[in-house]
Design brief:
214 residues; alpha/beta; two-stranded parallel ribbon; 38% helix; globular
Length: 214
Amino acid sequence: MNVLVIGANGQIGKHLVEQLAQEGKHQVTAMIRKPEQADALKELGAQVVMGDLEGTVDEIAEAMKDQNAIVFTAGSGGSTGPDKTLLIDLDGAVKTMEAAEKQGISRYILVSAYGADQRSKWPEEIKPYYVAKHFADRALFASDLNYTIIRPGGLKNEPGTGRVAVGTDLKPGSIAREDVARVIAASLQEEKTYRMAFDLIAGDHAVSDALGKL
């Protein structure tokens, strides 16, 4: 498959690009907004294409040409305000869904957030972020795309273990970003994840075993 990673310059995105390139099963392309990000991602094994989530659907669709699967792991980041969160994490995500449909690309993986489906779990201090994730998830549910929505718990930068827990109502927990990337990569062609949304935290099961039990 030709896999386009949106948010490839982010922490999960870089892990994913590197893992997909090392596996060698898929051709990975990184969508970037700044030309200066290109060299580092090429060194990880990706092709690069320019694209801006604040651009038009047609412009984003053009960046998706010749792709078979889309991974959205972009985010506005913790240093921006609610306005940018709305533009990137919600509208940017929805525009990529519309662009994928426009290009006839059906496989779409969205990295959401633990508890995004349950308003009672939204932390007050970052509620706009959860609002964005919640409604991006809902837009994907309503689409015709063959989606997978991954809702990781608290994200850590420590090395991954390759052992995870997945489910639809897990207790709160955390997970290494490296392991989130492993789950994305394994989900691409795992039919048990098709048209599924699930929580993800560190656990006791190998990634393939955990996903196979969904």
